[in-house]
Amino acid sequence: MADSNRTGFVGLGNMGGPMATSIAKAGRHPMVYDLRKEAVRTQVSHGAVAATSLAELIQECDIIGTCLLHDHQVKEAFLGENGIVALGRPGQIAMIHSTVLPQTVLAIAAAAKEKGIGIVDAPVSGGGARSRESALEGTLTLMVGAEDWAWEKARPILEIVGANVIRVGAPGAGQVVKLGNNIMALCNQVLHMEAIRFVQAYGVTREALDTVARVSSGDSWAVANYEFFDKFGVDHTMAGPELSHVLGKDIRYAVAVAQEQATYLPAVALCSQLLPGMFEERWANNKRRGSQ
After folding, report:
1. Helix, strand or coil for residue 88?
2. pLDDT at 129 over 50
3. How far is residue 34 from each of residues 52, 68, 75, 164, measured CA to CA in Å?
4. CB within 8 A of 108, min separation 6: which ones?
5. This prediction's pTM
6. Contact 185/221 with Cβ under 8 angstroms?
7. Which residues are catalytic?
8. How far, in Å, CA of 207 to CA of 29, rounded?
């Protein structure tokens, strides 16, 4: 029998781990599950309770948060034979903090509604250069799509991890807004790196460019937080050859979603192709400089 105060959390990676820690620090003692045992042990040390399986967590928890990396992982966790929809019960709610295709959320929400389970579409943003710290401190931004009853039930947990909890519509809307935000954030990264390449070709430093940009029309999050992605390439739990492609997945999702709605994003499509290689080159250059 579930405890109405019992919160579960599935996926304890780069963002999910700090979010679960923040919930534990608030006194919720969440039940946690991840395939990586070390990640589970870390959360237990912060006051969480380890689940032996996803099925146990679903049975024991009334509110379930999930933060998985890929779209297919979210589908399996929710729609798989031993997933949240199959094993869940009426009145339960489950939150999707991953960035996935809006269609994935809509399919999950439709299946969950037949079981009386509420889906809260709540992707997150760190809102600055301190994403993991934002999760730990409860200062994330969450863009939330949910039905009224699920929104009210989820809100106390959302407000533990987020300083800006913004309801943007029904399930699916959270993902659309997150992808729109990341179109601006990630395409701006590409433009900033090209601007740096341009000035450096003339012997001018990035620092000189950014000093001017910060007090003029070229200013942006990319300029203000340039070092964030240098640290990202080293500190992320997936640091390595695959990371640059993971970084660009949100704008690839946006291009795919736009085409399904007969809306085309040619500039975003180009940035989605350029971004992985540009970051790989940038991180390789940083390593070479670090070894000198």
Report:
1. coil
2. no
3. 10, 10, 16, 27
4. 74, 75, 78, 79, 85, 96, 119, 171
5. 0.90
6. yes
7. 178
8. 45
